[in-house]
């Protein structure tokens, strides 16, 4: 299978981390949103797009996560039998993707000429990020993993969002505000998958 995306997209990073953690052989092909490769595979031209060996294209990182997790059990990243745990993991993913969504909006807005930037949009999304980080830190508490006793999609989604936040908003001092998230993230960034995906 072939994963199409960029090195910076938080959604692509999440998909890559899942593939790497589960040791699934794949080719990673760099192509930007609306790039020549991805538009042939995904009608919306969005990344990530995962092209299976028979040509079927899986898009949206949440669907990629669901699919790839079924390919083997090493590890199971989305709980399969415990429905409540599954819901919690998927909600973590939504929270992490929400941080990424808002960070992408802020980045897009900031790329406009200064007099064209909408302060209201910036405030709305920066506040959403701050609130989501508070919420994440509260849910994590002093636990080693976001959900249960081992790594899940929740950890990979949150790590992907935070790597992106560090990239696009290095001035945001979330580590001082949330030492527990900081310690958890420091452990995540030592993992081989995160070191490879960057
Ligand atoms: N919900 C989607 C979001 C994907 C997404 O928005 N990707 C961005 C790149 S970070 C993109 O392709 N944007 C270009 C576009 O929407 O045309 C997912 O999780 O895969």
Hetero compounds: glutathione
**DSSP helical segment count:** 9
Order of helices and strands: EHEHEEHHHHHHH
**How many angstroms separate the termini?**
21 Å
Number of strands: 4
pLDDT below 50 for ≥5 consecutive residues: which ranges? none
Strand order of the largest sheet: 2-1-3-4
What is the rounded Rg? 17 Å
Helix content: 55-70%
Q: Any idea what the shape is?
A: globular
The major beta sheet can be summarized as: 4 strands, mixed
Q: In oligomeric terms, what are we looking at?
A: single chain
| Backbone structural class | alpha+beta
How would you sum up this structure, described in words?
The structure is a single chain. 56% of the residues lie in helices and 7% in strands. It has 198 residues and is an alpha+beta fold. It has a 4-stranded mixed β-sheet, covered by helices on one side. α4 (83-110) packs antiparallel against α5 (119-140) and α4 (83-110) runs parallel beside α6. Glutathione is lined by residues 9, 11, 33-34, 45-48, 60-62, 97, 104.
Brief synopsis:
With 198 residues, the protein is an alpha+beta fold. It contains nine helices and four strands; from the N terminus they run βαβαββααααααα. Helices cover 56% and strands 7% of the residues.
Chain-wise SSE layout:
Layout: E1 2-5, H1 10-21, E2 27-30, H2 38-41, E3 49-51, E4 57-59, H3 61-69, H4 83-110, H5 119-140, H6 153-168, H7 174-177, H8 179-188, H9 192-197
Parallel strand pairs: 1-2
Antiparallel strand pairs: 1-3, 3-4
């Amino acid at each position: 299978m072939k994963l199409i995306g960029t090195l910076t997209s938080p959604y692509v990073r999440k998909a890559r981390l899942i593939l790497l953690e589960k040791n699934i052989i794949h080719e990673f092909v760099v192509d930007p949103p609306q790039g020549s490769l991805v538009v042939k595979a995904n009608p919306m031209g969005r990344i990530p797009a995962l092209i299976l060996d028979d040509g079927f294209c899986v898009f949206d990182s949440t669907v990629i996560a669901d699919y790839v997790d079924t390919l083997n059990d090493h590890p199971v990243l989305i709980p399969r039998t415990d429905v409540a745990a599954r819901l919690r993991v998927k909600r973590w993913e939504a929270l992490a993707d929400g941080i990424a969504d808002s960070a992408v909006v802020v980045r897009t807005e900031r790329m406009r000429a200064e007099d064209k930037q909408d302060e209201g949009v910036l405030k709305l999304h920066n506040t959403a990020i701050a609130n989501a980080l508070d919420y994440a830190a509260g849910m994590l508490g002093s636990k080693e993993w976001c959900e249960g006793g081992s790594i899940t999609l929740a950890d990979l989604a949150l790590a992907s969002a935070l790597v992106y936040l560090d990239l696009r908003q290095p001035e945001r001092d979330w580590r001082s505000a949330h030492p527990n998230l900081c310690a958890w993230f420091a452990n995540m960034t030592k993992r081989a998958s995160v070191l490879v995906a960057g």
